[in-house]
Write a structure and sequence with these properties.
The chain has about 280 residues and is mainly alpha-helical. The protein is flat. Helix 4 packs across helix 7 and helix 8 packs antiparallel against helix 9. The protein starts with a helix and ends with a helix. About 85% of the residues lie in helices and about 0% in strands. The protein has 2 domains: about 55 residues; about 220 residues, MetI-like (MetI-like fold, Orthogonal Bundle). It contains 10 helices and no strands.
Length: about 280
């Protein structure tokens, strides 16, 4: 009986100790996200009111309430389409990031590769996606998901490669000299200094690449693809003047972009708890 009372007292002490901390954390989270939620709600109210007051036609700008009702009605159709496009965006994201990291490691290690490869990378990045989409469809087939993944990989590759190279090369000279004084090899310098220094740059590139991958996948689907794809659904509904349905599909695309960003943000916090940005966020 005495042991039970001791355990109960210990649990109560832990609860009392963690309670203020938990409440403070919830209050800090609320203060952080409340302005964004307030702006979002105000924007929806102004949108709904403005469409009604100025009598804007639905084919120009549907009301948010109509878009929400259409979203619920079309959810069994647009959700699988979103998953189909998400697979294309995710596959292209992984391919482009893997190639970008590999080329960045080689570029940062050997200057000859950097001088020879960089002009071609800039030229490919400057090529509009609308010019590459028909070529990729011709190479892989218009209904082959690999055509869309290739488009996404091309878009994702450049920002990941450039930011990773910056992180690998812009290291502290004092830290590099200290490792050299201990006769550290290139692999040790890479593992102990260059890669940790490059992680913030890499995750910044990943955040940009995540949203670009969704954009690239949907835009590439405008030039043809499987009827299950979200971009094909949007283009077909817009051609039929079903703009509420198109806006409902755009909501799914926005959710996909947010999902990419949140996943990358969680991975960043897990892999970089030591970084100053994570410590400041906790405070």
């Amino acid at each position: 009986m005495s042991q039970l009372m001791e355990v109960t007292a210990s649990l109560e002490a832990v609860t009392l100790t963690a309670g203020p901390s938990l409440r403070a954390r919830l209050a800090a989270t609320l203060r952080r996200y409340l302005p964004a939620l307030a702006v979002f709600a105000l924007g929806l109210v102004l949108w709904e009111t403005g469409v009604a007051v100025f009598r804007i036609e639905g084919f120009l700008l549907p009301r948010p309430s109509l878009i929400a009702a259409t979203f619920l009605r079309e959810f069994p159709v647009i959700f699988p389409a979103g998953l189909f496009t998400l697979r294309e965006a995710g596959g292209g994201f992984l391919i482009g990031c893997a190639l970008g990291l590999a080329v960045a490691l080689a570029t940062a290690r050997w200057t000859v590769i950097s001088e020879g490869f960089m002009p071609f990378a800039i030229a490919v990045n400057a090529t509009p996606i609308v010019a590459l989409a028909p070529i990729m469809n011709n190479w892989f087939g218009i209904t082959n998901p690999m055509a869309k993944m290739s488009m996404v990989a091309v878009i994702v590759f450049f920002p990941v490669m450039i930011n990773t190279v910056r992180g690998l090369t812009l290291v502290d000279a004092g830290a590099l000299e200290l490792l050299r004084s201990y006769a550290a090899g290139e692999f040790t310098v890479l593992a102990k200094l260059r890669l940790p220094n490059a992680l913030p740059f890499v995750f910044s590139a990943f955040k940009v690449a995540g949203t670009l991958s969704v954009i690239g996948a949907i835009v590439s689907e405008y030039f043809g693809g499987s009827r299950q794809a979200l971009g094909v659904y949007i283009s077909q509904q817009a051609a039929l003047f079903h703009f509420a349905e198109a806006w409902a599909a755009i909501l799914v695309a926005c959710a996909m972009g947010l999902a990419f960003y949140i996943i990358i943000l969680l991975a960043e916090r897990w892999l970089m708890p030591w970084h100053a940005s994570q410590r400041s966020g906790e405070e």
